[in-house]
Design goal:
Rossmann fold, binds magnesium ion, 25% strand, six-stranded mixed β-sheet, binds adenosine-5'-triphosphate, 8 helices
């Protein structure tokens, strides 16, 4: 579904130039939930921005369900942003003056969906994330976890093949973070209409629940497990918690 080859990206010039991504290769299958980890500043958000068509890579290519881009300038990948990729952010990015339902409808309308169809899809998506009884609430009447569910509904309502989530549980307490992760698992492993999710997280416990973990190191992504990513101490601790 997603194939990424040899992505390179630098910022700055001359002596201040930093080479952030140094040949990232990555593949994802439909319905897969992949966790991307790595230290602060290693380039995780940069990679997501390139996959999401918000930033051009210097080198390399992306094939998302047959749509090819990567080095293209953002102005040439409008379709990727409009219909291929959905976003979920740490701080939800909801509009406070709109209800939950209106937030989802508005996003669909922006990407060109007719109002009546947008409303139908919004109700479906909000029901899918467990908010059927909260559609008329505004974000400040909802808990953090519920607000993130609205954002998830917004991301999946347009039937986009790939959802990118940049630290989606970063602003949530442990229990709400786990709830969101359980919802992601359900959505990815839904046999009828699976979503595919690439999620950045700093939480080893959540990352280990994904189908696959990737660690970004030296500008590349590599397959990882808990021990490789956090060392034996964290792994031992997590295992003893599970017992
Ligand atoms: N537009 C930009 N101009 C210059 N440098 C940038 C730009 N965007 C990112 N960088 C630099 O690229 C590096 C990678 O940044 P990025 O935001 O991708 O890291 P990250 O892995 O998401 O970190 P964090 O875990 O803290 O969110 C950093 O050194 C950052 O300063
Ligand atoms: Mg980041």
């Amino acid at each position: 579904m997603l194939e990424i080859k040899g992505i390179n990206k630098s910022f700055g010039f001359g002596r201040r130039k930093i080479h952030v991504l140094k040949g990232v290769d990555l593949e994802m299958k439909e319905g897969e939930m992949v966790a991307l980890m790595g230290p602060s500043g290693c380039g995780k958000s940069t990679l997501l921005n390139i996959i999401g068509g918000l930033l051009a890579a210097d080198e390399g290519g992306i094939d998302l369900k047959g749509v090819k881009y990567g080095k293209s300038s953002p102005s040439n990948v409008v379709d990727v942003r409009r219909s291929s990729v959905g976003w979920i952010f740490q701080d939800f990015h909801l509009l406070n003056h709109l209800t939950a339902k209106e937030n989802v409808v508005f996003a669909l309308e922006l990407s060109g969906t007719q109002t009546s169809e947008a409303e139908e899809r919004a109700v479906k998506a909000l029901t899918r994330v467990g908010l059927a009884d909260r559609m008329g609430y505004s974000p400040d009447e909802l808990s953090g976890g519920q607000q993130q569910r609205v954002a998830i509904a917004r991301a999946i309502a347009g039937d986009r093949p790939l959802i990118l989530a940049d630290e989606p549980t970063g602003n949530l307490d442990v229990a709400s973070g786990q709830d969101i992760l359980n919802l992601f698992k359900e959505l990815c492993h839904d046999s009828e209409n699976p979503i595919s999710l690439l999620m950045v997280t700093h939480d080893p416990n959540l990352a280990s629940q994904a189908d696959r973990m990737l660690l970004m190191r030296d500008g590349k992504t590599e397959a990882s497990d808990i021990r490789a990513a956090w060392g034996d101490e964290v792994a031992d601790e997590m295992e003893s918690e599970e017992e």
